[in-house]
């Protein structure tokens, strides 16, 4: 859920940038400030000048000036107001219309609550949006139902295979067809109070020995090692769990489990969960389980910024909150890749989370305009940078070139996404539960992970049930494609 304390200029170094509270793109982003999703429904048929073209010609090879019609776009919002809609049009509609001047839009703000169900109901009735916002739990069912258009022709024409990260292309394939495109991505990292570390002369940990050394020094100095807490978003425990699975079991083991080669009851996963639980019981996370459950985001972030806590395991979406709270404290923060916590598990690995994903409605009456919008998404870098700077949007899953960044983008944001980009190209990537484990396992995790911390559920029993839920979805073909990793 969104943090009750809205952050300021998301990735900008400068203060005073007006941020708007739009749709939270995932419940896993408690500190994401501004975002929205959109669904586009065709109101007007393609102009008659397209008559006589083949299906492939109509969908992929029409010059921009010959694509027209009106697209009715559903814009998912947390708060609906004129300023928000004006900002959306300026950043996401007007740049597209510069390239496709004959396409018009009718924007309809929608409440985020229940938007996916509303879209699904419309699609089942043969209607619905032209451009479909997706998450991993509905991508495969939507594709199986025949709702999603084949994007293979667009990918070939735009040479996406050479431009887009391999994992992003892999995750969008269902039944050997490319039907989904991630349009933003994130990772899990170790944030830390840089001022505190430098003052104490502590080294940023890269392995278990270094991590437990700095933990011991922090506790001796009366500093709580990790700021994490989940009072405002109960599911935040899943962020920590995903980190430990990658740090202890490692991406190679996770990939093997996702492909059905080993069960999630493998000892490497038991070790991951037991180490996480042990760290909680020792009070390393916010001073203890009770404090972890009761500390709101405002206090959590303030304690990290003022040096009462030293580190924070979380995702790229936290950068805006880090900037705001650390500016108030006068201290500096930084980030590092997750450390390796077990022998043979590689470090400098980046677990990948999908920010947003889009698909095209197979029943659309305006496929040229719908597919043109996806083309534009992956080609207009200037518009993307502007959205990153102004409202904290995230990069596309393409090679990240920091040299194109406009003035004012936080250099730590640039360094983080440069590192993720490099890791993506080298396949030094890992996995997060909410993207890769399937809907049934995800549901079980969210409902039961805190019982691990209270001692009401053992690691083995927890993983036995995760494995059962995963296997059910796996046997029914409902697990998203497991992108390849070289981090073994």
What is this entry, summarized?
With 488 residues, the protein is of the alpha+beta class. 45% of the residues lie in helices and 14% in strands. The protein has two domains: 37-184 and 356-398, D-Maltodextrin-Binding Protein, domain 2 (3-Layer(aba) Sandwich), CATH 3.40.190; 186-352 and 426-475, D-Maltodextrin-Binding Protein, domain 2 (3-Layer(aba) Sandwich).
Please characterize this protein's 3D structure:
The chain has two domains: 37-184 and 356-398, D-Maltodextrin-Binding Protein, domain 2 (3-Layer(aba) Sandwich); 186-352 and 426-475, D-Maltodextrin-Binding Protein, domain 2. It is globular and about 70 Å long. The two termini are 34 Å apart. α10 crosses α11 (251-258) and α20 (439-454) packs antiparallel against α21. β2, α2 (82-99) and β3 (103-111) form a beta-alpha-beta unit. Mean pLDDT is 87; it is low at 1-36 and 42-58. The protein has helices at residues 55-60, 82-99, 115-124, 136-144, 152-158, 160-163, 166-171, 194-200, 208-220, 237-249, 251-258, 267-281, 289-294, 297-306, 319-329, 367-377, 381-391, 411-426, 433-436, 439-454, 459-475, and strands at 37-42, 69-77, 103-111, 131-134, 173-174, 177-178, 181-182, 185-193, 224-226, 309-315, 333-336, 350-354, 357-360, 429-431. It has 21 helices and 14 strands. The strands form four sheets. Strands 8, 9, 10, 11, 12 and 14 form a six-stranded mixed beta sheet that branches. Helix content is 45%, strand content 14%. By secondary structure, the protein is an alpha+beta fold.
Kindly list the characteristics that best describe this protein:
488 residues; alpha+beta; D-Maltodextrin-Binding Protein, domain 2; 2 domains; three-stranded mixed sheet; globular
């Amino acid at each position: 859920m969104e943090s009750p304390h809205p952050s300021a200029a998301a990735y900008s170094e400068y203060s005073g940038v007006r941020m708007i509270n739009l749709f939270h793109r995932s419940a896993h982003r408690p500190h994401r400030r501004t975002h929205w999703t959109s669904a586009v429904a065709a109101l007007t048929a393609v102009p008659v000048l397209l008559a006589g073209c083949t299906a492939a010609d109509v969908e992929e090879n029409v010059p921009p000036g010959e694509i027209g019609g009106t697209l009715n776009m559903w814009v998912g919002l947390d708060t609906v107001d004129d300023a928000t809609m004006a900002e959306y049009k300026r950043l996401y509609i007007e740049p597209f219309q510069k390239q496709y001047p004959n396409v018009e839009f009718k924007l309809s703000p929608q409440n985020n609550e229940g938007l996916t169900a509303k879209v699904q109901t419309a699609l089942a009735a043969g209607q619905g949006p032209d451009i479909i916002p997706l998450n991993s739990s509905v991508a495969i069912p939507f594709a199986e139902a025949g709702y999603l258009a084949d994007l293979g022709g667009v990918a070939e024409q735009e040479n996406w295979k050479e431009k887009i990260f391999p994992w992003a292309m892999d995750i969008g394939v269902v039944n050997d067809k490319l039907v989904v495109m991630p349009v933003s991505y994130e990772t899990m990292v170790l944030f830390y109070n840089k001022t505190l570390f430098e003052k104490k002369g502590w080294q940023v940990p890269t392995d278990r020995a270094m991590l437990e050394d700095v933990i011991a020094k922090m506790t001796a100095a009366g500093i709580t090692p990790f700021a994490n807490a989940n009072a405002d978003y109960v599911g935040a425990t899943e962020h920590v769990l995903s980190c430990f699975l990658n740090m202890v079991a490692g991406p190679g083991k996770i990939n093997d489990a996702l492909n059905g080669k080993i069960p999630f009851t493998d000892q490497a996963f038991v070790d991951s969960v037991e180490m996480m639980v042990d760290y909680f019981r020792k009070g390393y996370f916010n001073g203890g389980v009770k404090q972890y459950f009761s500390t709101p985001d405002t206090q959590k972030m303030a304690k990290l910024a003022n040096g009462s806590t030293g580190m924070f395991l979380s995702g790229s979406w936290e950068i805006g909150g880090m900037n705001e709270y650390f500016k108030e404290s006068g201290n500096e923060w930084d980030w590092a890749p997750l450390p390796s916590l077990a022998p043979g598990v590689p470090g400098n690995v980046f677990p990948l989370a999908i920010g947003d994903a889009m698909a095209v409605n197979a029943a659309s009456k305006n496929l040229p305009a719908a597919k043109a919008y996806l083309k534009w998404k992956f080609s207009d870098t200037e518009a993307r940078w502007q959205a990153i700077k102004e409202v904290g949007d995230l990069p596309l899953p393409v090679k990240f070139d920091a040299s194109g960044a406009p003035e004012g983008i936080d250099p730590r944001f640039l360094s983080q996404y440069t590192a993720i980009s490099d890791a993506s190209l080298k396949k030094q990537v890992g996995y997060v539960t909410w993207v890769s484990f399937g809907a049934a396992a995800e549901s079980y995790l969210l409902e039961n992970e805190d019982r691990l911390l209270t001692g009401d559920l053992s690691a083995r029993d927890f993983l036995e049930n995760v494995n059962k839920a995963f296997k059910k979805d796996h046997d029914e073909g409902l697990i998203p494609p497991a992108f390849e990793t070289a981090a073994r």
